[in-house]
Amino acid sequence: MDDSWTLPHICAERCNACGACVVACENHALELDGGVAALSHPESCGGCGVCEIICPEGAIDLAFEIVWEEELCSSEEEKPLVGGREPLAGGGRDVQ
Ligand code: SF4
Ligand code: SF4
Fold first, then answer.
1. Pocket of ligand 1 from Cβ distances under 6 Å
2. What is the pTM of this model?
3. Which of 44, 49, 51, 87 lies in disulfide reach of 21, CB 3.0 to 4.6 Å?
4. Which atom of ligand 2 is nearest to the CA of 21?
């Protein structure tokens, strides 16, 4: 399977060409092309999800959701695990 599923999908019908995603993309992967945002440089996309978050029209979708560590924790005792650590007594989720 190729890695294209990790790339943002842009709905041309929803895009109003505001350019917010183009400006926000630090990797310069997006451009406005013919009045619609386009992933002109997919090889530069790091899948950060900023474009999806910033789009006021909900025109950009990534096939996955980035969940920050704080959102995984319901308490101080349930910190997510990173790379090979044993589970904490109160439980935790492996985020390798
Ligand atoms: S932020 Fe959304 S509406 Fe604006 S150019 Fe990008 S895709 Fe289009
Ligand atoms: S996911 Fe991140 S790197 Fe990829 S196009 Fe959107 S803002 Fe740019």
1. 10, 15-21, 37, 54-55, 57, 59-60
2. 0.71
3. 51
4. 7
The DSSP letter of residue 89 is T
Q: Is the CB of 38 under 6 A from ligand 2?
A: no
Residue nearest to ligand 2 atom 8, measured at CA: 25
pLDDT, tens digit, 9 for 90 and up, residues 25-77: 999 999 999 999 999 999 999 999 999 999 999 999 998 766 667 766 665 55
Q: Work out which ligand 1 atom sits closest to the CA atom of 32.
A: 5
Which domains, from first to last, does the chain contain? 4-61 (3.30.70.20), 67-96 (no CATH)
C-alpha 71/C-alpha 17 separation (Å) is 32
Q: Which two tokens stand for residue 28?
A: 């310069």
Q: Which residues contact 47 (CB under 8 A, 6 or more apart)?
A: 6, 7, 8, 62, 64
